[in-house]
Amino acid sequence: MRKAAEAAPLVTVIIPVYNAERFLRRCIDSVLGQSMPDLELIAVNDGSTDASLDILRDYAADDPRVVVIDQVNAGQGAARNRALDLARGEYVLFVDADDFIERVTLQVTTERANEDRSDLVHFDWKLLSEKPEVTGRYHYYNADPFWHKRLLEGIECDELLRVENFYSVSNLYRREYLNRHGIRFEEGRIYEDNPFVLQVVNRAECVSMVHSPLYVIDPHPESSTRSQTDTDKHYRDHIYAIRRSFELLERRNPRAAAYLAAYHIKKIGPYYERRIPRRFRRAYIKDFVDILHEAQVEIPDGTATNRPTRTAVRLRMFERRRYLMFQALVAGKNHVMPRYKRAKWKLRQLKRRNDRGGAWAAELEAALDQPIIDRTISFLGLDFKYAGNSRYLFDEVIADPRFDGWRISFVTNDQRVPEPYRVKPELLETNQLLARSQVVIAESWIPPRVRKHRDSTWVQLWHGTPLKRMLFDSHEPRIIWNRRHHKIVKYRDIQNWDYLVVDSPIAAEKFETAFLFDPERMIHSGYPRVKYLLEQRGNAALREDIAGRVGMSGEPSRKVALYAPTWRDYNYARSADDSDFDYVLDVERLADELGDEWVVIFHDHGYLSSHVSTGNERCIDASSIEIQELLLISDVVVSDYSSVIFDAMAIDVPFVLYTPDLEQFEEFRGVYGDMWEELEGFAVRDVKGTADSVRNASPMNAVPRAMKAFLYSASAEPVSQLLCSREEAEKDCEDDLK
């Protein structure tokens, strides 16, 4: 029994359990191991005949957050309702016993719920892959049409009826919201999620959208939706769920009924073939048609339709029952029924495009069938550039005698890479080499045409500590609007990474939520580019050489302000003429404000293509020079949301943040709030304020020690130390990545 004075948890996680001993520990461990631990877990044993109850009792004995309820078998809906009536958390999450959740699920969803004061938080899901060698561990493919929106409000919430599946498990609910509307599950039936989700969506006034696959479904053959297919259970319960959903629908949104009808029309074909016994199929279709016949759909502009005098929906199955055609025949005026063209009811694979990737497919598949090439390391820079982390790690590795005899390659056309190491990105032979390399080291997203060998190791260096939100931490509305599969493609790449290099605890925390990457596979090492800065900051000869290449020879008395902005999401897929460059600092005006003792150096972002005038003799465009080199000759860095400020921080170069578009940036990308709280004191929004901040910047130890400890910390162990072969490990390395 709970003590009366015991504080209520933030979240109640409800798990109905029926004969789930094979999966139960995995499920419970995923809940109890959450990064946000303020929870209670109510597990309802629904008459299990296996060892499920014993497992639950063991967990309850070890962890006071676990509450076990034992009941006679009454079905999943009844089990959830009983736990929901006992729940104490401000929020409620349902998890099926054969599934599990990502470690950051409660952290991410409760933060959004608290921020938005929403009724529920809708997040994404993925399947545990049945063919991990093909799709990766997880199969993630959802591209629902509403994901470009961060928040749904009012009748907009009904857009959630357009989801791929009506899953109650992919939402975090405010418990008060469920109780206020009396929303509970249907009992004694399967498909209980259908009416429940309909009510949840159709009554909501505010829904937070988290475009991240936090819930993992295990599509094993023993699940309730894959069993009992030799009885009328699926037929009767599915028809009941559809009818009940239409009965519960509130017509506040003129499109809601059409969304609901479209959802069930999409599902009826696969269910007809896979779940309904042949002897019940005619009745199943007839009942479904009757429900659609009774449903009224309003015209999209919001004007109500007249009741149809006659509406007939004819269904025809043909071509071995793989196609389903709906044709609406409507009599009378202003009657609307969606017209559905034939659709093939099977999982479709994307056709291979007629490009290099398609032309090379057979050769690359053949390369994957060959054994790995021992003692090979291939480097991939950001956009195949010889720069940043990949450059400095490559330079370190080829100079290290421990790698004598290794085949080291850098994929680039940059002539600065010596001929024996340089391989051209556009060649088939290069992609075959990447497919068979023992180690592949990248600094950003790896092109989809690069295939991973089952025995290779991929190390992701990334290109800096994130201040701006990334991937699953950002809604990326402009990108998603243009590329609905953007996050799907990126997550497919992430699943190929064996290790991810991070340079600070705060970076590791952000990468876990942004990439859903296992923290145990993160390498806590200083970035190679920062290691270069730390080693070379006292090299006077190098500084003089860099100044000469910039065009500052003979001007040692002038101070240098380096301006290095990042790119903007709101310009994604826009031409240069159509892009918004209002955020770019007027460097000529800054130079005038600073006076003769200063030189302003501009370094463009690779994705920027911004229009910056450097006609003033004290304004120099040095975009062609590596930014790490420019940092070595800079007295102050002016940036915005770029990771370059953390590199500057490492060598005690003060910085100023020029952020005139903060609100717009937040809308399209966003920054991490806890990090911005530490940095917003360095932010200015006009040129004069920037000049004042540059002049007043402290030349040494510009960032308070506590802030630096929070935002930045470098390991003494370089990444190269982790790349030694197994044979050399006993002498030189504690870890290896073979």
Would you kindly provide a written description of the structure presented here, covering whatever features stand out?
The protein has 738 residues and is of the alpha/beta class. The protein is built from 27 helices and 26 strands. Strand 24, helix 22 (644-650) and strand 25 (655-658) form a beta-alpha-beta unit. InterPro entries: Glycerophosphate_synth (IPR007554), Glyco_trans_2-like (IPR001173), Nucleotide-diphossugar_trans (IPR029044), TagF_C (IPR043148), TagF_N (IPR043149), Teichoic_Acid_Biosynth (IPR051612).
Overview features:
Rossmann fold; about 20% strand; ten-stranded mixed β-sheet; globular; about 750 residues; Spore Coat Polysaccharide Biosynthesis Protein SpsA, Chain A; single chain; seven-stranded parallel β-sheet; teichoic acid biosynthesis; disordered C terminus; transferase; alpha/beta; 4 domains
Short note summarizing the structure:
The protein has 738 residues and is an alpha/beta fold. The protein is built from 27 helices and 26 strands. 34% of the residues lie in helices and 18% in strands.
CATH architecture of the largest domain: Alpha-Beta Complex
Shape: globular
Helix fraction by DSSP (H/I, runs of at least 4): 25-40%
Uncertain ranges:
298-356, 729-738
> What is the distance, rounded to the nearest whole angstrom, between the alpha carbons of the first and last residues?
52 Å
And the CATH topology of the largest domain?
Spore Coat Polysaccharide Biosynthesis Protein SpsA, Chain A
- Rounded to the nearest angstrom, the radius of gyration is 29 Å
CATH C-level class of the largest domain = Alpha Beta
Biggest beta sheet summary: 10 strands, mixed
Strand segment tally: 26
Number of helices: 27
Q: Determine the strand fraction and express it as a percent band.
A: 15-25%
Q: Give the full name of the CATH homologous superfamily of the largest domain.
A: Spore Coat Polysaccharide Biosynthesis Protein SpsA, Chain A
Pfam family, one: Glycos_transf_2
Keywords: Cell membrane, Membrane, Teichoic acid biosynthesis, Transferase
InterPro entries: Glycerophosphate_synth, Glyco_trans_2-like, Nucleotide-diphossugar_trans, TagF_C, TagF_N, Teichoic_Acid_Biosynth
GO biological process, one term: teichoic acid biosynthetic process
